[in-house]
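Email to the structure team, subject: Sugar phosphate transporter domain-containing protein model.

Hi all, the expression group asked for a predicted structure before they design truncation constructs. Nothing fancy, just the tokens so they can compare against earlier work. One-line instruction: predict Sugar phosphate transporter domain-containing protein, return tokens.
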Amino acid sequence: QISKLSMIPVVCLMEWVLNSKHYTTKVISAVVVVAAGVGICTVTDVEVNAKGFICACVAVFCTSLQQITIGSFQKKYNIGSFELLSKTAPIQAVSLIILGPFVDYYLNGRWLLNYSFSTGATSSSYCFHAPWLSSAT
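Reply from the structure team: attached below.
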């Protein structure tokens, strides 16, 4: 949750650096409040280890950069989010299939295929990825 909240100031900072975007005083004040809240939560409430911290930083940086890039593509090509998603999802899926097992092994020290799939894990995975649950209601 702290990583999600820290994306707001990171996106603002990256847009300022990369696109020279300027924000109003109200927006900057709100971002400062969010950043202060993230800092307070991090100091008082969270245990941090090196792997988790590095993964969170990489995730925040990559997700923020992706949001900025996707937004600029949508403006540049005048396309909607679903059309853009239909073009980028296959590339993202292939990269996840190729890189995912290695990242998982680095983080857990075990290969995914060595995981003992219990009935609960299999059924919950099936329920969360069931086609009838993925449609918007």
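The radius of gyration is 19 Å. Residues 1-78 form one domain. Ping us if the truncation boundaries need rechecking.
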